[in-house]
Amino acid sequence: MLLAEDEPDIQMITRMALEDGGCSVVAVGDGQAVLEQVRNQNFDVILLDVMMPRIDGFTACARLHADPQTRDLPVIFLTAKSQELEVQRGLEMGARGYIVKPFDVFCLVDRINAILGKQSA
């Protein structure tokens, strides 16, 4: 799993929640790093914040879905951007789901699995 979150505290808490839920996590701080990481490693899902430096999450998602090598990678937005138009924009650009911050860290893995249609372990 690739986690893109630029706030160090939120990145650490999210990473710990995911790892406690049995996920292997690579964490990066911006959308440019997401695009670089997907070239070097395979991921089963990408969690994207929207507001990040260099390349924001919406732009990173659009670039991932425009590239034939990465267009089928599931993207889930994990962001404080909660207005209906933002949620709709994220889903229309191909994201599988949209989780709004603050989120329940104890249910995060279950929410991701539900979005991806997986059974909880």
TrEMBL record:
Keyword Secreted on entry: no
Domain of life: Bacteria
Record bears the keyword Phosphoprotein: yes
Gene3D superfamilies referenced in this protein's UniProt entry, alphabetically: 3.40.50.2300
Keywords associated with the record: Phosphoprotein
Domain Response regulatory: 1-116
Pfam family, one: Response_reg
Residues that bear 4-aspartylphosphate: 49
Biological process (GO), any one: phosphorelay signal transduction system
PANTHER family (alphabetical): RESPONSE REGULATORY DOMAIN-CONTAINING PROTEIN, STRESS RESPONSE REGULATOR PROTEIN 1
Protein name: Two-component response regulator
Organism field: Oscillochloris trichoides DG-6
